[in-house]
Amino acid sequence: MSIVRARLKPYSLPLRDPWPSQDGDVTERKGWIVALEDDQGRTGLGDAAPFPGFGLETHPSAGAGLKLALKRIVGLRRDGYAGAIADLTVLAPIAATATARAAIDCALHDLIAQGAGLPLARYLGGSETLRLVPVNGTIPRVAPARVAELGARAVAAGIDTLKIKVGGASIQEDQERLRALRGAVGPAVKIRVDANEAWNPDRAIESLRAMAGFDLEYAEQPVAAEDLEGMARVRKESGVRIAADESVRDIKSAEMIHYRSAADILIVKPMALGGLRAARSVQNVASDGGLAIVVTTLLESAVGRAAALHFAASLGETPYAHGVATGGALERDLADAPVPVRGRMAVPLLPGLGVTLPDAFWSDAYTLEEE
Ligand SMILES: [Mg+2]
To answer: Which CATH class is domain 123-346?
Structure first.
């Protein structure tokens, strides 16, 4: 068994609402889909969608790296798949581009799980694996009345955990939004906030103390990604559990967060970390350190989100809902994808990733065949 063909195709999907990033508002998600085909007729899929401001890679750099890297993947035999996944961090063209590594890592995992006849989650997680993954809803930074409306709608649909974006506004404005949300959803719904690095430590402590009355589940990335000292202080003085997101860049940064006691929770984005193997390594750091894990996406297409969903399911029961229900942020998608039902997302039961793209998607794709 070996890989006989690789295909690579760019995509661009408009977002329903602009998404704040370190580089300004993002209005579309651009990425690359990788398909690896073996001589048994199986296709493994992977997604590379760099997020502006999240790492240094760009859509063109990820694509250029993938084109070169795929030359090393075509012709690979089955007994080399695991080694190839482990070696992606030293594969020169994509060593520095996490999302490109994630695409190949995911496509190889898809093929391996298909070969084993198991859904990817089950292949990764064994008997612990969840069939239904609890997920949170996300409320963008909109006016309080709209916050209340979106919150009430999510809760009516069975969502019991909501995340709302804060920071980038006055403390009073954030409080008004939280008051509207808490008022609309009642005391039982969990509310987490995400500041996306918006505050300095003093401001974070002041803001989070001012939000104490709203019973926050946790606060995500209150301060700059590299300010672990500041984050540790916020964790100690704000009275709110802290989740590290942008700070979690690789295994080493995850270890530093643990050593500095900078967070209670690690946010794991398999795509941003370089794939499922890297996500598993960060998970190991978290469980060694007694930190919880919440799996989220980079707002990528149905292909990358499926990988995040399988990974979340493979963790079994965890204390927090996962942020993998982000398909609604896209105006359209590349393939059918699971949607949350009563606050849970069903993991596809087909072997592998369980995602199929229409044939038409592949017209004009860059194609590489075994010589
Ligand atoms: Mg976040």
So the answer is: alpha beta
